[in-house]
Automatic annotation (TrEMBL):
Pathways per UniProt: Pyrimidine metabolism; UMP biosynthesis via de novo pathway; (S)-dihydroorotate from bicarbonate: step 3/3
PROSITE patterns named in the record: DIHYDROOROTASE_2 (PS00483)
Catalytic activity from the UniProt record: (S)-dihydroorotate + H2O = N-carbamoyl-L-aspartate + H(+)
InterPro entries recorded: DHOase (IPR004722), DHOase/Allantoinase_Hydrolase (IPR050138), DHOase_cat (IPR024403), Dihydroorotase_CS (IPR002195), Metal-dep_hydrolase_composite (IPR011059), Metal_Hydrolase (IPR032466)
Gene symbol of the encoding locus: pyrC
Residues that coordinate or bind Zn(2+) 1: 70, 72, 164, 317
Domain of life: Bacteria
Binding, Zn(2+) 2: 164, 191, 244
Protein name (database record): Dihydroorotase
Gene Ontology biological-process entries: 'de novo' UMP biosynthetic process; purine nucleobase catabolic process
GO molecular function: allantoinase activity; dihydroorotase activity; zinc ion binding
Cofactor mode of binding and number, as noted: Binds 2 Zn(2+) ions per subunit.
Originating organism: Sanguibacter suaedae
GO cellular component term of the entry, any: cytoplasm
Length: 452
């Protein structure tokens, strides 16, 4: 029988995970009941009295439920590309139990009303906990500070603020935002892109852009903003988060800032851990993304930065787009790639299977640290917590020995713009539990599993 198969029918709120390896450690039996981890005991010592569904966990790694700091769910406004329901179902399939929903929707998530709407629809869908990100500026206009406080104090309890897709390029506005969020322990997540240095840019500026004749986007456009922002964060004593860092120079800057004691965190995407700008040679817009794919030396630097803790988290930047927006010539195509259903596999492939990280490290960069940055690591719905008795049962079971070929049209996201289509990747999410309720079993979303 395949690992992860459910062998006994029982109620849907009690699960016995038999023989799972928490973070690759000693195999144990784990009983989930009442939304929490009720018992953990040596393998083979817990038995279902018939009222729990038994999951065969042989060969599976048990991780705390994954937390994404950077997801584009597109609702409201672009439900043709993704809805909160489809995007969160895809997230559960990818092993996530919480996602931070980016603010560049239509209307923009820049008021308490819009963030509460997104939060509420996410809760009704029930696949993962949706934590809305609030815009820094009104309508992402880069000029007027949005009502950060009212979003923070709304039912959505916003803690992460970002104009992602656009840079908060005005230094005085960035300073004000950094100062303002301190009042509610928030963080500004900056999309580091100096707009004047990237006008018309289509891909990384370098040898490949020169050869194929696409307008280049220099590394310095990212690095100049990061350098400025870490100094601003230091000056006002606030928390800064750097979105989708992509260059070797950016890693150096964050390393320097951390060495100085500046309160900065940074994320890297799965695609920047694996893909390079060489892929642009075919002019296939699947590989068009913001920030752009960089060079092999940059890929090496971000892997090293992730392994040594300079980069704190892996965040997907899941950016679904319709066929109309992607299946066209390069210059006309939208920037962005899907990523929720491949993130864990790409991290296993680039970091675990290469010996650079352990599963304990994976839990840190894909669960506990993103939960801490988003301030969702405490309270009854805590994410990213260790798998201990009494903790919320937010759990992802992974089969690291599985190998699969990515077929974008078979994924659960409503869009097919994965850059990994046709690639063989290791690892398979076998089951996901959100507060003890299975959202994914036997590798498939549980029908009705989203509805609470
Ligand atoms: N990452 C992307 O390439 N696209 C993002 C926004 C952005 O960061 O540009 C999107 O919303 O599509």
């Amino acid at each position: 029988m395949e690992a992860g198969a459910v062998t006994t029918a029982g109620t849907t709120d009690r699960y016995l995970l038999r023989g799972v390896a928490p973070l690759g450690g000693e195999r144990v039996d784990m009983l989930l009941a009442g939304g929490v981890i009720e018992r953990i005991a040596p393998e083979g010592t817990l038995w279902s009295d018939g009222d729990a569904q038994v999951v065969d966990g042989a060969g599976l790694v048990a991780l705390p439920g994954l937390v994404d700091l950077h997801t584009h769910l597109r609702e409201p406004g672009r439900e043709d590309a993704e809805t909160i329901r489809s995007g969160t179902r895809a997230a559960a399939a990818g092993g996530f139990t919480a996602v931070h929903a980016m603010a560049n929707t239509t209307p923009v998530q820049d008021t308490a009303g819009v963030v509460e709407q997104v939060w509420r629809i996410g809760a009704e869908a029930g696949w993962v906990d949706v934590r809305p990100v609030g815009a820094v500026t009104v309508g992402l206009d880069g000029e007027h500070l949005a009502e950060l406080g009212s979003m923070a104090h709304s039912a959505a309890r916003v803690r992460v603020f970002s104009d992602d897709g656009r840079c908060v390029s005005d230094p005085i506005l960035m300073r004000r935002a950094l100062e303002y969020v301190k009042a509610f322990d928030g963080v500004v997540a900056q999309h580091a892109q100096e707009p004047r240095l990237t006008e018309g840019a289509q891909m990384n500026e370098g040898v490949v852009s020169a050869e194929i004749g696409l307008a280049g986007w220099p590394a310095v456009a990212e690095e100049a903003i990061i350098a400025r922002d870490v100094l601003l964060a230091e000056h006002v004593g606030s928390r800064l988060h750097v979105c989708h860092l992509s260059t070797a120079g950016s890693v150096d800057l964050v390393r320097w800032a951390k060495g100085r004691g500046i309160d900065v965190t940074a994320e890297v995407t799965p695609h920047h851990l694996l893909l390079t700008d060489d892929l642009a040679r075919g002019y296939d817009p699947r590989y068009k993304v913001n920030p752009p794919l960089r060079t092999a030396a940059d890929v090496e630097a971000v892997r090293e930065g992730l392994a040594d803790g300079t980069i704190d988290v892996v965040a997907t930047d899941h950016a679904p787009h319709t066929r109309e927006d992607k299946d066209c010539e390069w210059a006309a195509a939208a920037f962005g790639m899907t990523g929720l259903e491949t993130a864990l596999s790409v991290v296993q492939h680039t970091m675990v299977d290469t010996g650079r990280m352990t599963w304990v490290d994976v839990a840190r960069v894909l669960s506990s640290t993103p939960a801490r940055i988003g301030r969702i690591d405490t309270g009854p719905h805590a994410h990213g917590r260790p798998l201990d008795v009494g903790e919320p049962a937010n759990i992802t079971l992974v089969d690291p020995s599985a190998v699969r070929t990515v077929v974008p049209t078979e994924q659960h996201t409503a869009s097919a713009n994965s850059p990994f289509g046709g690639r063989e990747l290791p690892g398979r999410v076998v089951a996901t539990f959100l507060r003890g309720r299975a959202t994914v079993l036997d590798g498939a979303p549980v029908d009705g599993g989203g509805a609470s």
